[in-house]
Design a protein that fits this description.
The protein is α/β, with parallel strands linked by helices. It contains 15 helices and ten strands. It folds into three domains: 219 residues, Amidase signature (AS) enzymes, CATH 3.90.1300; 126 residues, no CATH class; 42 residues, no CATH class. A ten-stranded mixed β-sheet has the order 2-1-3-5-4-9-10-8-6-7, sandwiched between helices. A hairpin with a 5-residue loop joins strand 9 and strand 10. It comes from Halorubrum vacuolatum.
Length: 431
């Protein structure tokens, strides 16, 4: 079910005219026809390929000279189905009427279009980006989850039916599925990629992120989507990595922890300095504050829809909203304050110990069996709670040939550093 489809090299070839866009779409169609019936990464669309051909023809007429073509010329990109796209309905993995959920096209989609990208189509999401899963399967093992809530985006990129896809993360919905599917997932600093035009789950912590097959593709996409992106030179040295020892790390499974120690050993031999720091000793309280904040925000965001269509909500999502109704203003205020206090605490430790990145397992273990759940996002929660930029880098496989990933989080607003350091990390962890 896997196929290489690197974004950066594909984009270069399309822009230079080395690959014809229509020919490339034909290749993806053949790939999709083979893979999609088993992986189920895409929201069905009756006229997908005619639409893409028409969009490609318009693009070709607009940019006849390769020298004038924008950086994503002709690149088809999947869009998680909680993100509004003009001309395509938004269903959000739910059974609510699409016209009820409709809204103006998201800024992040407009940024992609302005860069010459084609909308490949909508990708499957859990209902309203919470925990009720759709039909998507992991391309590495069809009997396992691809993770969620950005299930379809991760599976589509991993299986090579599109070179990149947008996702969102409120706890672990980009970083975890990227690890489960053996690809790169990037979650920016909170607010660095616009979230307007995205159906909210929690406006306090919702992030828009994306998936690519390698870090070169992540670098290209981040430069287009992140506000105020700065092109920095390639690093001349290696970042110092901090390992968050203690109760947080102990949430991972023995399989993940054993693999993580091996990954750290590999990095140490590769010349990386590793600093083990005791932190997140109150992780259970942090987890609880984050979950209550998400529940309260979800209850507010879905209030009108839930009042009218509550019987159409999945049990998991309805339970979240009902929980959120009972969360007090004081609890919400405490959770929002916690985000900034924890972020400041991380940065203080980084300054004290001259650390550049935090490193941890990207998930509690490999993708679990079955598609009834999407796995536990607990390893991603503190980095989302604080809004720190975070990237998943593939980091080998288990004895059962299932992908594993590490996540690296940097200073708030230093997304450029996280991306440029990820290249070396990926190279070291792939050897």
């Amino acid at each position: 079910m896997l196929h290489p489809e690197p974004l950066a090299t594909t984009a270069d070839a399309l822009r230079a005219g080395q690959i014809d866009v229509s020919t490339y779409l034909g290749k993806l169609k053949a790939r999709t026809d083979t893979v999609e019936p088993e992986v189920s990464a895409l929201v069905p669309e009756e006229d997908r390929w005619n639409r893409l051909d028409e969009d490609a023809a318009v693009l070709a007429g607009t940019y006849r000279d390769p020298a004038d073509r924008p950086s994503l010329y002709g690149v088809p990109i999947g869009i998680k189905d909680i993100i509004h796209v003009d001309g395509l309905p938004t269903q959000a993995g739910s059974t609510l009427p699409p016209d009820v959920l409709a809204g103006p096209e998201a800024t992040v989609v407009r940024l992609l279009r302005d860069a010459g990208a084609l909308v490949f189509g909508k990708t499957v999401t859990t209902e309203f980006a919470h925990f009720d899963p759709g039909p998507t399967r992991n391309p590495h093992d069809l009997d396992r989850t691809p993770g969620g809530s950005s299930s379809g985006s991760a599976a589509a990129v991993a299986s090579g039916i599109c070179p990149a896809a947008l996702g969102t993360q409120t706890i672990g919905s980009v970083i975890r599925p990227a690890a489960f599917c053996g690809i790169v997932g990037f979650k920016p600093s909170f607010g660095r990629i616009p979230t307007d035009g995205v159906i909210p789950l929690s406006t306090s912590v919702d992030h828009v992120g994306f998936f690519t097959q390698d870090t070169a593709g992540a670098s290209l996409l981040a430069s287009i989507l992140c506000d105020g992106w700065r092109q920095l030179p390639a690093p001349t040295g290696r970042p110092t990595l901090a390992v968050p020892d203690g109760p947080y790390l102990e949430q991972a499974s023995p399989v993940a922890l054993d693999a993580f120690e091996s990954q750290l050993e590999r990095l140490g031999k590769g010349g990386y300095e590793l600093v083990r720091l005791s932190t997140l000793t109150d992780i259970e309280a942090i987890n609880e504050r984050h979950k209550r904040l998400v529940a309260a925000d979800a209850a507010l965001a879905h209030d009108e829809w839930y009042r009218e269509y509550g019987d159409r909500y999945a049990e998991e999502t309805g339970g979240l909203i009902e929980t959120g109704k009972a969360v007090t203003i004081d609890t919400v205020s405490e959770a929002r304050r916690s985000r900034h206090e924890l972020r400041a605490g991380f940065l203080e430790l980084m300054d004290q110990h001259d650390v550049d990145l935090w490193i941890a397992p990207a998930a509690p273990g490999p993708a679990p069996e079955g598609i009834e759940t999407t796995g536990d996002p607990v390893m991603n929660l503190p980095w989302t709670h604080t809004g720190l930029p975070t990237i998943t880098v593939p980091a080998g496989k288990t004895a059962d040939d299932l992908p594993l990933g590490v996540q690296c989080a940097g200073r708030f607003g230093a997304d450029e550093d996280v991306i440029r350091w990820s290249h070396g990390l990926a190279d070291t962890l792939s050897t």
